[in-house]
Amino acid sequence: MTYQDEIARANAPIAAQNGRWDGIDAESVARMRLQNRFRTGLDIAKYTAGIMRRDMAAYDADPAAYTQSLGCWHGFIGQQKLIAIKKHFGTTRGKYLYLSGWMIAALRSDFGPLPDQSMHEKTSVPALIEELYTFLKQADARELGMMFRELDAAREAGNEVEAARIQNAIDNYETHVVPIIADIDAGFGNAEATYLLAKKMIEAGACALQIENQVSDEKQCGHQDGKVTVPHEDFLAKVRACRYAFLELGIDDGIIVTRTDSLGAGLTKQIAFSKEPGDLGDQYNAFLDCEAVTDPASLRGDVVIERDGKLMRPKRLPSNLFQFREGSGADRCVLDCITSLQHGADLLWIETEKPHIEQIAAMVDRIREVIPDAKLVYNNSPSFNWTLNFRQQVFDRWLEEGRDVSGYDRAKLMSVDYDGTELAAEADEKIRTFQRDASARAGIFHHLITLPTYHTAALSTDNLAREYFGEAGMLGYVRNVQRQEIRQGIACVKHQNMSGSDIGDDHKEYFAGEAALKAGGVHNTMNQFAA
User: Fold this and answer.
1) Is residue 187 within 8 Å of 211, Cβ to Cβ?
2) Which of 207, 221, 333, 337 is labelled catalytic?
């Protein structure tokens, strides 16, 4: 609806009251409605699911149309990210938010900092989704409020052309509300627990749920050792639970991202149930590291399986976990991905130990032989040492090509001594184009960084503490923070405005007219930042 349509719609119930609501201004109601476009989390989930589906179709047509996100651990961080994106690029298209279970565990748990092992309160996940969207909606309200003030100023000045321009901008306003890909870990329990949590996450606004094939009570961070996977049927029950949650709540096009940790997981907690040779359970069990049973008397509380007519004993650790064969990780990843897509998943996530395009592409090529439109979400993880990894990749390629690498120590390529070298420059260029190249070669639809704002918060705080508590004193803040905010046009330099002070003033005027006691008068120190 256009701005004028919204005013007309708001006026209808006011006019029907035969003068009893004459103190209510229809244009003010219209403004409040436009500033609160999304009434519920389900409204958001429906809207953002449509965005992701269109983006997925665009990527299928052109791999250059990949999408990106950054992980955000607080609503304010997510809000500032989207404000920055709109400021620098003029649109939020192709830009999402990622909600990281790692950052919830480390930063948002009532227990305090925790490792990424599903020990945090499951309710903190939907709570953060709701918080992120609260801040994104407030960003809409703030920006539209400023546009309404500009419209009023243009009208008061009699500038009809400017008023028409602003009204057109209001009619075509692009919201800060974008899709969130939300981490549901391994489901926080059985399939019923996964379903219940998925519902809460969707009701909070999540249109995309990312779930991994680890054992819930043994869950580890994707970049830690000791990961334990579950048989496919167990995992698929949780995938179906997520789909049921979407469909029950009317989000027919909700997105499920299935993550396989099999590349780095050498253990399983249970042997899969198998009815006949070659079924899914049998394929899972085929990866078990087994030894032939030659002496039945040697069996003491052991589990045995039949393989090619022979009795085999899967190797079991004192922890009661079973081992997979060494080097079977890539094959297990491929089977995991094909199976997930055949049973309702929309996107894949392969957790790797390094950012290597050909390693990812080798698996995706095999998956696409069965599912031609298979697409990945990929973690551009801070757990990778990107500088060292890419310098080593360049070093190895140069060595294969017969180039002279005698001036480099492969194990020490992270050293600052190499920063100005040709090798370092080539590695940095490969890092710069990694997302573009990986999307074209390895089927990556969405690139995310799981924990970037965790690291930026730590780095910026360290820099400020060094300056402020050192010789620079107050200049450390003024020179490196406030002066940069002013000169770079950072919205929150006017922190009163950012927190909603001007929105509150507008409401006071709606409610009380000329009698409103507003905070934004001439004595508000925020006016010092007007220039």
Assistant:
1) yes
2) 221
Q: How far apart, in whole angstroms, are the C-alpha atoms of residue 72 and residue 449?
A: 10
Q: Is the pLDDT of residue 529 over 80?
A: no
Q: What is the pLDDT of residues 314-359, one digit of tens each?
A: 998 888 899 999 999 999 999 999 999 999 999 999 999 899 999 9
Mark whether 492 is an active-site residue: no
Distance CA 164, CA 148 (A): 12
Mean pLDDT of 274-293: 93
Residue 282 CA to residue 285 CA, distance in Å, equals 5
User: Has residue 223 got a pLDDT over 60?
Assistant: no
Q: Which of 325, 283, 328 has its CA nearest to residue 307?
A: 283
Report the distance separating Cα 305 and Cα 289, nearest Å: 11
Taking CA atoms, 60 is separated from 358, 439, 445, in Å, by 20, 11, 9
Burial zone of 428 (CB within 10 Å; 0-12 exposed, 13-18 middle, 19+ buried): middle
Amino acid 298: pLDDT: 79
Q: What is the pLDDT of residues 191-213, one digit of tens each?
A: 999 999 999 999 999 999 999 99
Q: Measure CA of the first residue to CA of the last residue in the chain; give whole Å.
A: 35
In whole angstroms, what is the distance from residue 20 CA to residue 133 CA?
A: 36
Backbone angles phi, psi at 415, to 5 degrees: -60, 145
Question: How far does Cα 333 stand from its chain's mean position?
Answer: 22
Q: Which amino acid is at 507?
A: H
Question: According to the model, what pLDDT value does residue 295 have?
Answer: 82
Residue type, 418: Y
Could you tell me the CA-to-CA distances from 1 to 7, 27, 37, 190 in Å, in that order?
A: 10, 14, 11, 44
State yes or no: pLDDT of 525 exceeds 70. no
Tokens of 512: 């009380």
Q: Which residues pair with 284 in a beta bridge?
A: none
Q: Quick one: pLDDT band at residue 513, thresholds 50, 70, 90?
A: confident
Q: Dihedrals φ, ψ of 96, to 5°?
A: -120, -175
Which whole-number Å values give the CA distances from 141 to 85, 272, 309, 501, 508, in the listed order?
A: 17, 52, 69, 11, 15
Report the pLDDT value the prediction gives residue 382, as an integer from 0 to 100.
Answer: 92
**69-220-222-255 Cα dihedral, nearest 10 degrees:** -50
pLDDT digits (tens, 9 = 90+) for 153-184: 999 999 999 999 999 999 999 999 999 999 99
Unique residue bearing structure tokens 């008397």? 297
Find, among 48, 207, 186, 34, the residue nearest to 122 by Cα: 186
For residues 471 and 461, what is the distance between their CA atoms, to the nearest angstrom? 17
Rounded Cα gap, residues 98 and 82, in angstroms: 12
Higher pLDDT residue, 224 or 272?
272
459 C-beta neighbours (distance < 10 Å), count = 10
Helix, strand or coil, per DSSP, at residue 267: strand
